[in-house]
Here is the input.
Amino acid sequence: MNAPHILVLNGPNLSRLGKREPGIYGHRTLTDINAALEAAFPDVSFEFFQSEDEGEIIERLYDSEDRRSCAGVVLNAGALTHYSIALRDAISAVTLPVVEVHLSNIYAREEFRSKSVISAVCRGVVSGFGEASYHLGVQALLSLAEEGPKQ
Ligand code: DQA
Here is the structure.
């Protein structure tokens, strides 16, 4: 079997991990987090993409859908989670499974973070486990790929 291909997609401000509010998001950079994923899942072929730009995130999602070889997407949409109907519509428009992940527990923070406009169109949500949220997201996609297509 070919190595499953997974897109790890990060939205605005996640480029600042390591420097950004370390008490909430930890000291590890996005590069550290991505390298740890590659080390933990040597049989997965990863593609990593981060952008501060909503449109670029949406375009990358469509690229993955069109390439057809992608098993799914682990998405930390950052603040787009809470207000981007455009991103929600894009997730709805693709058939790829998308797992929403967050480093922090968005339900245990400010009120405005407890609303995600994308959760309902994602396959599932992992929130609050720090870097491990990404690993759990990958694990979820691998389990789905093993299950095969739904009847
Ligand atoms: C975040 C949570 C969001 O509320 C926030 O806007 C982020 C990061 C997280 O990973 O915990 O940028 O998605």
Remarks:
- The radius of gyration is 14 Å.
- Residues 132-147 form the longest helix (16 residues).
- The mean pLDDT is 95.
